[in-house]
Amino acid sequence: MPFLTLAKKRPNCYQKEIKWGTTGFRAAVFGRSLKEKYTGWFVNDKKHGKGLQTYEDGTFYEGDWENDKRNGYGYLSFVCPTTQKTLRIYTGWWKDGFPTGSGMKSFAKGGLYRGEFKYGS
Question: Which of 64, 88, 99, 114 has the most CB atoms within 10 Å of its CB?
Fold first, then answer.
C-alpha cells in the first residue's frame, strides 16, 4: 500500500512510494508538490538508470539518470496546452543535470539549434 510522508532527506518535499527498498524499479512522487513524479530505476535511494520525471510546470524528462541527476542521453519536453502535442525542448546528452555534448534545442519562437552544448549553453 502506498504511503505519503514528508521526505526526511529533502525538506519541503513530499515522497509517495509505490515500492519500498533502496534499489530497483519504482514509481514515486518527489518534489515540491504531488504533481512532480518519477518513475524509473533507483540505486541507493537515488535516481539511477532509465527514468521519467514529470515536473510541476508540465515539463518532463525521459532518459538516463546517475546519482539523482540527468546524466547520459535523454530529452526534455512539454505538452502544448492548446494543441495537446508533445514538443521537445532539448534532445541530446546530459552531464550533471545540464545539456552537455551533442544535442538539439528548440526555441519558443520556432528556432532550432543543433550542435555542441557545455553545461547548458
Answer: 99
How far is Cα 10 from Cα 95, in angstroms, rounded to an integer?
Answer: 22
Residue 27 CA to residue 21 CA, distance in Å, equals 12
Q: Which three cell numbers stand for residue 17?
A: 512510494
Contacts for 55 with CB less than 8 Å, ≥ 6 apart:
31, 35, 36, 61
CA nearest neighbour of 17 among 45, 44, 43? 45
What is the spatial distance between Cα 48 and Cα 71, in angstroms, rounded to a whole number?
Answer: 9
Q: Enter the C-alpha cell of residue 48.
A: 539511477
Over range 33-40, report the average pLDDT.
84
In whole angstroms, give the CA distance from residue 12 to residue 19.
22
> In this predicted structure, what is the pLDDT of residue 45?
82
